[in-house]
């Protein structure tokens, strides 16, 4: 089904019947990716005495599950600056528009000391036109990103200079296939988060902090998806929380 979008006075045509889902589903199996030293998610039926909320148990007409998970550590999620601020900010209040122009790029992080880092020069060389969102696919792009256990593995991350450049390019939405844009053990500096959101003081928030900008982490972009320009539909659940599990969808232009 073709749809014509008037986006910022630009007429764009997309095929809604061909969505490209770059989210990782949340499961209660060992295949679920995990970061930040937590256990896998729990999805279990509610139990009231002898009653079990599971049709296959023969004691309920409905499946009625509780789900326990952490959006930051258990899969694809979108976060606002409330992730790092003293005051409460909600992703549900920060993200009010859901379709954006987006550029998909592929980067092989550079070896710097003991780290693998996405540098400013790499982003500068690949981001050659204006866009509202950037999607960063890292190499090697192994399928085990969908089930990897990231805790204490020092994954690649985004340099502060790269995050500043992305912010100064007026990109509002940053998506990446890593558990964080920052180094795993960084003494709480969170340099890339702060640079992208333009947060200078997490206790007394500066007036020019980017309240409507978002970071989406732990996506997965298969190799067959070509670099280039897309329309991004950034879907979240309506959680009044700093982050929500999310489902970013791409459409070819």
UniProtKB/TrEMBL annotation:
Signal peptide: none
Superkingdom classification of source: Bacteria
Pfam families: Cyclase (PF04199)
The EC number(s) this enzyme carries: 3.5.-.-
Keywords carried by this UniProt record: Hydrolase
Keyword Transit peptide: no
InterPro entries, A to Z: KFase/CYL, KFase_sf
UniProt keyword Signal present: no
MF (Gene Ontology): hydrolase activity
The protein, known as: Cyclase family protein
């Amino acid at each position: 089904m073709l749809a014509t979008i008037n986006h910022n006075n630009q007429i764009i045509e997309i095929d809604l019947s061909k969505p490209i889902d770059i989210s990782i589903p949340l499961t209660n199996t060992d295949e679920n990716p995990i970061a930040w030293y937590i256990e896998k998610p729990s999805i279990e039926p509610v139990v009231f005495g002898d009653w079990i909320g599971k049709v296959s148990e023969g004691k309920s007409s409905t499946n009625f599950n509780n789900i326990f998970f952490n959006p930051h550590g258990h899969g694809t999620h979108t976060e606002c600056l409330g992730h790092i601020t003293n005051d409460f900010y909600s992703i549900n209040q920060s993200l009010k528009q859901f379709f954006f122009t987006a550029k998909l790029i592929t980067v092989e992080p550079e070896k710097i000391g003991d780290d693998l880092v996405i540098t400013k020069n790499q982003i500068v060389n690949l981001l050659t036109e204006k866009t509202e969102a950037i999607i960063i696919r890292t190499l090697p792009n192994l399928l085990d990103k969908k089930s990897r256990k990231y805790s204490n593995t020092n994954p690649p991350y985004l340099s502060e200079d790269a995050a500043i450049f992305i912010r100064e390019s007026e990109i509002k939405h940053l998506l990446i296939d890593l558990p964080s844009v920052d180094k795993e053990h960084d003494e709480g500096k969170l340099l890339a988060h702060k640079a992208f959101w333009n947060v200078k003081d997490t206790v007394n928030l500066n007036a020019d902090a980017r309240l409507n900008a978002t970071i989406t982490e732990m996506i997965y972009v298969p190799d067959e998806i070509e670099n280039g320009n897309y329309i991004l539909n950034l879907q979240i659940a309506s959680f009044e929380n700093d982050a929500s599990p999310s489902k970013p969808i791409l459409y070819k232009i």
